[in-house]
Amino acid sequence: MGDVEQVNVDALMAEYDRESNTRHYKGVPRVVVRYILAAFSVFAFYMNLLSTWPEQIRRSSFVGLIIFMAFMLYPARKKSAKRQNFVPWYDIILGIVGTGCFFYYALNFSAMAQKATRISGLDVIIGIVGILIIAEVCRRVVGIPILVVAAAFIVYAFTAGYSVNRIVYTLFYTLDGVIGTPIGVCSTFIVLFIILGSFLEKTNIGSFFIEIANSVAGFASGGPAKVAVISSALEGMYSGSSVANTVGSGSVTIPIMKKTGYDKDFAAAVEAAASTGGQIMPPIMGAAAFLMAEMTETPYATIAIAAIFPAVLYFTGIFLMVHFEAKKQGLKGLPKESLPSFFKLFLTKGYLFIPIVVLVVTMSIGYTTSRAACLAILAAIIVSMFRKDTRLTPKTFVEAMENGAKNTIGVAAACSIAGIIVGIVSLTGIGLKLADTLLMLSGGIDIVALFLTMIACIILGMGVPTTANYVIMATITAPIILKLIPETPVLAAHMFVFYFGIVADITPPVALAAYAGSAISGGNPLRTGVIATKLAITAFIIPYIFVLSPEMLLINTSVFRVAQIICTSTIGMFAIAGGLEGFMKKKLPWWQRIMAIAGGLAMIEPNLITDIIGLVLIAFVFVQQYVIKDRSQKALNA
């Protein structure tokens, strides 16, 4: 049974996650490929811990090796992946030429810097070929949407009057293009955290999270759905893909939810919404936390702490809606005797949390991101030895290194193309022009400007991996907010655009996570996406609070104020969840639903007047739902 489920998971990942659609190798070629990938992980450790190379050499050699591995693993078409031990001649040529282009720059970067835009015709040709080949890698591994955006920006640069030499020099031979900040962060921080995630996966920490969630919520009404919410929140601490989260844990949780009695579309939507939320869950936030620290010049610890409460509120909203849906449908939980004991489980396997604790503590006390990640990897290796079922063998150790390299390819390809967007924005100043356009369309009204920015983020974020998604948002849309609403803290603006870029994974029509979940449940992808969007309603509300009331992110506030915000927002989320589900203790008539949603929204806004208004509205609904029903029941009993 386990083998069958694994095959199904692999097939789903290949269908909905382009990064999983790799060539199949067997025998000696399989061993060779494995050790090439593992060697890349060793290279990443060397580059970050021992080398003193200039950034140009570090980044260009990193991209060059990514290209080589990409053409070794990823076919031009999905169907071609089924053929074993086969790489077509043109992929061999593209891999060698693409790698050669970036190593050419690595070996000649000093001369290129002196030439500036006076680069030779050969340099221009090498730059164009290199950009086109990394674009082809991105098409194969990530998909077309991000390429369309990048191509549109390049076309704009040409129409704005910039020469081929100037554009190629900026995008290929400077630290403002393909090997710009996104690749800089990817080659230093992100690659190590991806490797850490691979080691954690090999310790079976994902199964442990599902068991922990079962022990906490499995017995409750609609327990399996609550288990999905909790386990996906935990898995989000190390996973960088909402689709991988959905397929990985959803292959276990979705069938159990259906068996419990949940509608198949609702079951898939719960997993998709919860897995997407994993990308906003500290301490890693799909690796975007490290990019955000770099791009906002804000300490990582500050970002991780600021993100805690919004993430908890997000999952609280999903949890409550799952609860009300279970009550409405009369669904029960799993038998208690079939569930593991929380304390016994924590005592026997709780040590698997140690690497994450090591990561958070070391970064909080001032260790560099790279060193903290390496120490967390070392901790994962050590703690895996505590039990036989989690112990890393030489084979699983190499597999972890292999998977780390493989999972880096897609992120690096996306970051390279995101670097093109950053380079064109820097070259042309198009970001300010977009801000002026939105300012005109919004009529200077803050909430309208934020709404238009939200739409732009959702469109730009469709089908784009988390890290590249954030880079695009931070480059294009965050500056728009800072210009339209100048008093907005930089971190608040970046959190706003990051959240709306992420929810593109569950927002129709693209909604990759929803499509993956519906493939497991056998449901309707579009309906799954609509339900997932409703479940994730918090992600469409609280980003506005980031900008309008930055206290939500613990900016310029006090302990008392934080406690007040936590209490009022939680009550507000309770009311919104009940209003959207149309059920609390009993069915809510339409007018109570409106009052509950309005009251909840008022209480999430951190303002005394709105809190009072919201509390009055919610209290009225609460009395109607709970107190009056109890009295009528007593009268009937009398």
TrEMBL record:
Sequence intervals crossing the membrane: 32-51, 57-74, 86-107, 119-135, 142-159, 179-200, 266-293, 299-322, 342-363, 369-387, 408-432, 438-460, 491-516, 528-547, 559-583, 595-623
Pfam family, one: DctM
Keywords: Membrane, Transmembrane, Transmembrane helix
Keyword Transmembrane helix: yes
InterPro entries associated with the record: DctM, TRAP_DctM-Dct_fused
Domain TRAP C4-dicarboxylate transport system permease DctM subunit: 129-556
Residues of the signal peptide: none
NCBIfam families in UniProt: TRAP_fused
Name of this protein: C4-dicarboxylate ABC transporter
Taxon lineage: Bacteria, Bacillati, Bacillota, Clostridia, Eubacteriales
